[in-house]
Structures are given as structure tokens and as C-alpha cells.
Design a protein that fits this description.
heterodimer, A: alpha+beta, Arc Repressor Mutant, subunit A, two-stranded antiparallel sheet, 5 helices, 2 strands, elongated, B: mainly alpha
């Protein structure tokens, strides 16, 4: 099985945020969704480099959006998870789940 | 400065560190968030937020720009940079030798000697970081990093010792030997740091 079919931890968070946000997800909403759900303060640089890497692996796709005055006239870039991205997410989640299953007793040891 | 806009310097820096194909969207997102904070909290808080984002985004964005570079060009740049520093050091050694032979102020000589050694430390650490970055970005094996570290140490130690014997009055020989012995750990540490950065 190819190494690229599993996601890194931050890649996993970004894809989960994209799935939650739907078709109109973009940098600001992805960052705020991660912050809201995990409490992690992530930089725009980290979000964009991760989205760019995921796009180069064909796990997400992007399209240009509208430009508004509050953005200094610059366009948005909307991101959407591809079918390959969903597969990679499921596979990663399953592998994490199988590693975590049955570990509760070990954590509860004094 | 417009109170509801990020400062021109901050925007310019962000523009410089962003990869070209992400620049517009990234700056647009940051500006949108900036305006949100400025209206919810205060323009000063928004400015602080922008500054923090700039600092925290620098690592990932510069890393990505480096990854997009051709590794051989980064390597060439690192070695050319190192040799540029080395030539400066050589000229400084000649000047120091001339000064010490003419019996001028020893404090002046000592101060400049420290400056020369400081520049060498910076040059070696920078070259080491460049090695680590290139090895990490090119996903080369660790032995490539070790070989590059040894090669760079040799190119530093051999000419340095030649300079030491050519200009014995410039720098005490014990100091030069001690410094040459420090070269390897300095380069190796730089390489380890560079590799770690490239893996982020």
C-alpha cells in the first residue's frame, strides 16, 4: 500500500475541516474551524502549505472565488475534498482506530 | 498608516515569503481576518495578530518555497556563500597580519580577530544548515548528510590551517587549531537543524 494513502496529523485535521465546511471552505473558515474544534491556533502559512500539498496529491481540489473589498480586492480560493481524499481520510481513521482499540485498560493502570 | 489596514511593511514581508501561486489568496485571507479582528477588538490587536501570523507562517511558507527550489541550486548557493565568507576571512587575516607586524594597538587587533572568528562561526553554521535543508528536501539518506558534512569540514580545515601557517602573526596557532576542531560539531549541528526544519 502506497505511503501517500495515509494522512499526517495536520493533513487529517484540514481534510476533516473541509468535509465539515462543505463546498465553500477557504483558508479563513478552515483555520477557524480547526481552532473552534481543537483549540489549536494554527497559522495561515501552515493551513495553506498543507492545502497545497493535499492538492498536489489530488486529495483536494480548488477553484477561485470572489474578490471583496475587505480582502483588499483579492480573490478567495475555495477547497473541496476529492473521492481520493475521502478514501485517505477513512483509511487513516481506521488505522488510528485499530491502534487505539483496547488501549483503555493500559491508560487506566495506576 | 491607514488604521484599518495591516502596515505596508508587514504586507510586503508576507508577500515576499509567500509562494507565488498562493500569494493572492493567502494575503486576501489574512486581510479579511485582520479586518474582522480590527472591528471586533481593536486595530492595535489586529496589527499584533498580523505580526504573529507573519512570524508563525514564515517557517512553513519558506520551507515550501525551498522545497520548490532545485536542490542542486541551493547546494551551489550554500557553497558559494561559504566561499564568499572565506575570502572575506582571508582578506581580514592579511589585514590583521599587517597591523600586528606594524605594532599598532593590540586591542584593535583583538577586536577584529573576534569579528573574523564570529563571521566564520556564522558561515559554518549557515553552510551546515544549508546541507541539512538540501538533504532533507531532496529526501536523501543520512549518509549523504554525513559525507557532505565531512567534505565541508575538510574544505574549511585544510585552507584554514594553510592560512594559519602563512600568517602566523595574525592569529595564535592554538586558537586556530581549537577553532578547526570546533568546525565539525558546528557544521553537523547546523545540518541537523536544517534537516529538522525541512521535515516540518
Amino acid at each position: 500500500m502506497g505511503r501517500e494513502k495515509y494522512l499526517g496529523e495536520f493533513e487529517f485535521l484540514v481534510i476533516a475541516a473541509l468535509l465539515r465546511l462543505g463546498k465553500n471552505a477557504y483558508g479563513v473558515s478552515v483555520r477557524s474551524e480547526i481552532k473552534k474544534r481543537t483549540g489549536r491556533q494554527v497559522s495561515f502559512g501552515a493551513v495553506y502549505t498543507t492545502l497545497d500539498r493535499l492538492e498536489s496529491k489530488s486529495l483536494v481540489r480548488s477553484r477561485s472565488g470572489e474578490a471583496t473589498p475587505s480582502r483588499g480586492g483579492r480573490p478567495k480560493k475555495h477547497f473541496e475534498v476529492t473521492a481520493r481524499g475521502v478514501d485517505a481520510m477513512k483509511r487513516t481513521l481506521e488505522s488510528v482506530q485499530s491502534m487505539v482499540d483496547g488501549i483503555d485498560t493500559a491508560w487506566n493502570l495506576p | 498608516m491607514n488604521p484599518v489596514c495591516p502596515s505596508r511593511i508587514q504586507r510586503r514581508l508576507m508577500w515576499l515569503i509567500s509562494p507565488r501561486h498562493l500569494r493572492n489568496e493567502l494575503l486576501g485571507d489574512m486581510e479579511e481576518e485582520f479586518h474582522g479582528i480590527a472591528s471586533r477588538v481593536s486595530p492595535a490587536a489586529a496589527s499584533r495578530w498580523y505580526r504573529r501570523q507573519l512570524v508563525r507562517s514564515a517557517g512553513p511558507l519558506l520551507g515550501q518555497r525551498l522545497r520548490a527550489c532545485r536542490p542542486e541550486l541551493v547546494t551551489l548557493g550554500a557553497f558559494l556563500g561559504y566561499w564568499a565568507f572565506y575570502c572575506c576571512e582571508l582578506m581580514a587575516m592579511r589585514a590583521l597580519a599587517a597591523v600586528s607586524q606594524s605594532g599598532i594597538d593590540s586591542t584593535f587587533v583583538a577586536r577584529n580577530l573576534l569579528l573574523v572568528l564570529g563571521i566564520e562561526v556564522l558561515a559554518l553554521a549557515a553552510a551546515g544548515i544549508a546541507i541539512g535543508l538540501v538533504v532533507g528536501l531532496a529526501k536523501s539518506a543520512r549518509h549523504v548528510q554525513a559525507l557532505a558534512t565531512v567534505a565541508l569540514t575538510a574544505t574549511f580545515v585544510v585552507p584554514t590551517m594553510i592560512n594559519t601557517f602563512r600568517y602566523p602573526d595574525a592569529v595564535p596557532i592554538e586558537l586556530r587549531i581549537a577553532f578547526a576542531l570546533l568546525a565539525f560539531p558546528l557544521i553537523a549541528t547546523g545540518a541537523a537543524l536544517g534537516r529538522r526544519f525541512s521535515n516540518r
